[in-house]
Design a protein that fits this description.
This protein has helices at 3-8, 56-71, 91-102, 109-122, 124-127, 136-143, 151-170, 182-190, 209-217, 222-233, 237-241, 274-281, 304-311, 321-333, 338-344, 352-357, 363-378, and strands spanning 13-18, 21-25, 31-39, 42-51, 248-249, 254-257, 268-271. It is α+β, with helices and mostly antiparallel strands. Strand 5 and strand 6 (254-257) form a beta hairpin. 27% of the residues are buried.
Length: 382
């Protein structure tokens, strides 16, 4: 870390400086220093004060002094003359710390919540167990009821337990092989899972989309307008719902979605067709989000468009499936290259070498394709 870096950080989370010293930023934006250490097999956390009252230099000095106490067998939290409590660290404590340390690098709130929910729900039998007492049998008992009935969930649970126990070992809180590892371990006990056929989002046949789109335009409410934008641009649900006015350059008819909101982690430029420009003109620009939700500072619910389809009695198609409708239309009804269609969907095109040498994003070629698609959506005489 540097002083400038500490000043500039804004997002909630924990940011490491090294040797266990971290800057913690709360959801309210306040900053404080914390030091993670292990004493007599127990993971501890000491607070060094708030920033900027305690500078980076001062926090480092406090860490050095605390390390000296720890190395002398003294609890740095209580100071000289005090011995640490001998309560062992539990799986739940390590799990919550692991999530807090890593969630800043996870893409969305749903992923963060899934980590907590799966570990707290399926890991309940070991949640309050000392982390050094968890063995293969405990992990097997958690996974056995869901291994074949809920294979995808079981895979995620196993992997997350393995990571938490791996973190415990790295902290010196347990030793030996990881009881949640699959290879040459749980695979002998749980058996091979049946391969699941890849599930695709149900998609409306592209020939039916123009008539549906005509019906959609007669629907009132923000969910209908959001779905219009999604279909016109072949964007993903989260990209549309979290769209902000600052991302739109109306003069150049361009929507630039920042990398942190894209699945591939790369900025994506979306050309805006005349129909999309007309749609944007009817939306109110006095909000941060194009489609604000009922809660202050939050966008429309990610279920809003799905519920709209249900109200329109559309049972055999999903919101995400309109991307497939667009791709099928590209392949069946246009002579445009497949690469351009894939780039319009923000998919990676070519192998790693080709991607390394590809500098442009074929914006004008994609503008032509998206204009054709918007024109197609607007024509119900077919």
């Amino acid at each position: 870390m540097t002083d400038a870096k500490v000043r500039s950080l804004r997002e909630p989370g924990k940011y490491p400086d090294g040797e266990g010293l971290k800057l913690r930023i709360s959801p309210t934006g306040s900053k404080s220093w914390t030091w993670i250490f292990t004493l007599e097999g127990r993971r501890r956390e000491a607070g060094f004060g708030s920033y900027p009252a305690v500078s980076l230099k001062e926090a480092r000095a406090k860490r050095v002094e605390a390390e000296r106490l720890r190395d002398d067998g003294i609890d740095p939290i209580k100071g000289a003359g005090h011995r640490p409590e001998l309560r062992p660290t539990t799986f739940g404590e390590i799990a919550l710390d692991y999530i807090a340390d890593h969630e800043a690098g996870w893409k969305n709130d749903k992923h963060r919540q899934q980590w907590r929910n799966t570990l707290q729900t399926y890991g309940k039998p070991i949640w309050n167990m000392p982390v050094d007492q968890i063995g293969v049998s405990e992990v097997r008992n958690i996974l056995r009821p869901i291994w074949h009935k809920k294979p995808e969930t079981a895979k995620r649970v196993r992997g997350r337990i393995e990571r938490v126990l791996g973190a415990a070992k790295a902290l010196g809180l347990r030793s030996g092989p990881n009881p949640a590892s699959l290879r040459d371990n749980l695979d002998f006990l749980l058996g091979q899972q049946r391969k699941q056929s890849k599930r695709h989002h149900a998609a409306m046949p592209y020939a039916d989309v123009p008539q549906f789109f005509s019906d959609l335009k007669r629907q009132e409410g923000l969910a209908a307008r959001a779905l219009e934008l999604l279909i016109h641009t072949a964007a993903r649900t989260s990209e549309v719902l979290h769209a902000k006015w600052c991302e739109f350059d109306l003069d150049n008819r361009l929507w630039t979605i920042p990398a942190e909101r894209m699945k591939a982690g790369k900025e994506h430029r979306v050309p805006l067709t005349p129909q999309v420009m007309a749609l944007l003109n009817v939306l109110t620009e006095n909000k941060t989000f194009l489609f604000p939700g009922q809660s202050k500072g939050k966008p429309l619910s990610n279920m809003a468009m799905s519920m709209l389809l249900r109200r329109m009695d559309i049972a055999d198609a999903t919101v995400h499936g309109f991307r497939s409708s667009f791709r099928d239309w590209c392949g069946e009804s246009t002579d445009e290259p497949g690469d351009i269609a894939e780039m319009a969907l923000a998919h990676e095109v070519g192998n790693k070498v080709e991607q390394a040498y590809r500098r442009g994003d074929a914006l004008e070629k994609r503008r032509k394709l998206m204009t054709m698609w918007s024109d197609y959506l607007s024509n119900t005489e077919r």
